[in-house]
Amino acid sequence: MNTDELGKRILYFEDDPEIAHLTTTTLTGHGYEVCHMEAFPEQGLSALRDKLAQKPDLVILDVQLPGIDGYAICEQLRQDYLNTDVPILFTSGLMQDDDILRAYEVGADDYLIKPLRLKELLLKAEHLLRQYESQRQASDQFDSAMKMAFDAMKTSSELGDILRFVEATHRVTNNAALAELIFSALASFGVQGAAYIELDEQVYFRDDGRHVSLELESMREARDKGRIYSWKQFTFFNYQHFSVLIRNMPIDDEDRYGVLKDQLCLLLNGVDARIDAILLERNNERKQKVAKEVAQAIANLVMKMEQDKSALSGRFESTILNLENNLATELIQFSLLEEEERSLMTHVGTAIKDATSIFEESLRKESEYKAVMQQLLNKLGSENENPCLKK
């Protein structure tokens, strides 16, 4: 006896008590579970289902039975009760060609001529059960292969959705548009969620437009629990500038749950990259604005310096000119006696003093301009840093 056959369930129809007893004893002695019935129950398949907790792995069916014969029973079992690949073995005192064709027509797999040879019965039963098991395994493998194929096609389609989503994020520039795009993508994956985004300001969004305070608080609490945090059917995806909550993860389907979690990570990584890009763009715009302001301030300062320099130069020239005029006047009035010489020297001293004062003021102004220039340069340097992108 093949140990693989142990515990297999056999439904056995036979109205002859002696044959039924001998056959049942032999089958159970070889490890089979046998449910013997003298005839098809009057209550039909419902009574059969009540009697058998599980469907049989093999049916042994006598053709000549009281009430409904074996052909009709076989046809009814095939249509409304058995799996299509469960074997049915007919037993009969005589199987002519017409009987064999009719048995095949109603769904039988093999037959034995009475009186039964028990060794042949066991061999037939083992053969049919091995064949049934092989078919079942092949069917399972086929179903598994088809599931993998459909899953692969579905995954391929969803990866396409992710790529289209990432492309669409390039056109997003604010919180509301980003949330709308996220919810549209989640819907294509068959899940619902909420988002907490800190792009322009801290804003909470939900795909159905509602505001659920406890949900928002849960999202805030979950932000320090790692990149991915799961609790029952809820899964939180946390990033530096946003969080997304999925409310209906398929926790009963382990394979789908794992694939979906990975795909949502890919999708939300695209959101994270887009937010970083937006912040970088805004920082560059801010730096460009500051650079323009600094350039304009420097230009104004240079112009002011030129104006001040021109004014100082004019004052210096005026002082020297006054000195020359005073000297000329004195030279006309005096014959450069000692007294006149002292007067002349006084005018010269005054002129030198004024010129020195102008020169010192020029130095002071230049120092002030240098200090202002340094402040502008320091400001420009500090603005070149990007505090928004610091992790």
UniProtKB/TrEMBL annotation:
GO molecular function per UniProt: phosphorelay response regulator activity; transcription cis-regulatory region binding
InterPro entries from the UniProt entry: CheY-like_superfamily, Sig_transdc_resp-reg_receiver, WalR-like
Residue ranges annotated for the Response regulatory domain, each copy included: 9-129
SUPFAM superfamilies in the record: CheY-like (SSF52172)
The name this protein goes by in its record: Response regulatory domain-containing protein
Organism: Bowmanella pacifica
PANTHER family per record: PHOSPHATE REGULON TRANSCRIPTIONAL REGULATORY PROTEIN PHOB, REGULATOR OF RPOS
Transmembrane segments: none
Coiled-coil regions, chain positions: 280-340
Gene Ontology CC terms: cytosol; protein-DNA complex
GO biological process, one term: regulation of DNA-templated transcription
Domain of life: Bacteria
One Pfam family this sequence matches: Response_reg
Signal peptide limits: none
UniProt keyword list: Coiled coil, DNA-binding, Phosphoprotein, Two-component regulatory system
Residue positions where 4-aspartylphosphate is found in the record: 62
